[in-house]
């Protein structure tokens, strides 16, 4: 059976893949709920109990992309190929750290009332900022997971070392997919990643951070090609 194990991003559930699944034919996507642990290291160890104890095709989106990369570094024998979407396996940029700390402090003091519409819109590329469907989907996933998951995910992910060059030394093919309008990644991300011999990097136009929802056809094709399911 053709299978890809998929790690979601912050405050994303199985609906993250809903536009891609119909495009994958007989390829099965396994959505993995991120473990509720206090640190990224502990999350990775918990994922080792959830994922098959055999070489797998692993895909991670956003924070899940960082976790997939960390899993590959810690358990390289359990990875066939690694695809990272909307993440670069690097530490957070200073502005994102500041935003996360601000959000975390606000939630701890005031409680959580869901992701603001303005924040959901900021995750999207210019062409998609008026898509009620995408905005409402982001807000709905966030509402379903709720305050406790947000606090855990923000708290455990603030400290994340850059995983290069450790990832670049592994005998694993790695593919990175980046939205050209992703405000959470620097504009030269692909250029920097392509310096590594085991890495390919692809950018998609008219797309922000939410590639699986904004560009599902493009991403599905990249998945099938990279994981050699064509």
From TrEMBL:
InterPro entries: AB_hydrolase_fold, AB_hydrolase_sf, Hydrolase_4. Residues 40-117 form the Serine aminopeptidase S33 domain. Pfam families: Hydrolase_4 (PF12146). One of its GO terms (molecular function) is hydrolase activity. Gene3D superfamilies: alpha/beta hydrolase (3.40.50.1820). Keywords: Hydrolase. PANTHER family: MONOACYLGLYCEROL LIPASE. This is Alpha/beta fold hydrolase.
């Amino acid at each position: 059976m053709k299978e890809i194990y998929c790690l979601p991003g912050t405050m994303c559930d199985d609906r993250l893949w809903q536009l891609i699944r119909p495009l994958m034919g007989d390829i099965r996507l396994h959505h993995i709920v991120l473990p509720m642990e206090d640190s990224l290291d502990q999350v990775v160890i918990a994922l080792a109990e959830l994922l098959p104890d055999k070489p797998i095709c692993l895909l991670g989106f956003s924070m899940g992309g960082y976790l997939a990369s960390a899993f590959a570094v810690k358990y390289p024998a359990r990875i066939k190929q690694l695809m990272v979407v909307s993440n670069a396996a690097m530490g957070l940029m200073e502005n994102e750290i500041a935003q996360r700390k601000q959000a975390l402090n606000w939630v701890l003091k005031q409680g959580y009332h869901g992701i603001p519409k303005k924040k959901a819109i900021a995750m999207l590329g210019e062409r998609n900022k008026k898509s009620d469907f995408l905005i409402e989907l982001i807000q709905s996933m966030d509402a379903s997971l709720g305050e406790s998951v947000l606090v855990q995910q923000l708290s455990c992910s603030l400290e994340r070392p850059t995983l290069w060059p450790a990832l670049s030394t592994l005998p694993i093919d790695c593919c990175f997919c980046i939205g050209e309008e992703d405000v959470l990644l620097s504009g030269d991300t692909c250029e920097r990643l392509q310096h590594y011999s085991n890495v390919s990097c692809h950018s998609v136009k008219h797309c922000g951070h939410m590639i699986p929802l904004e560009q599902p056809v493009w991403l599905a094709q990249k998945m099938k090609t990279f994981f050699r399911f064509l």
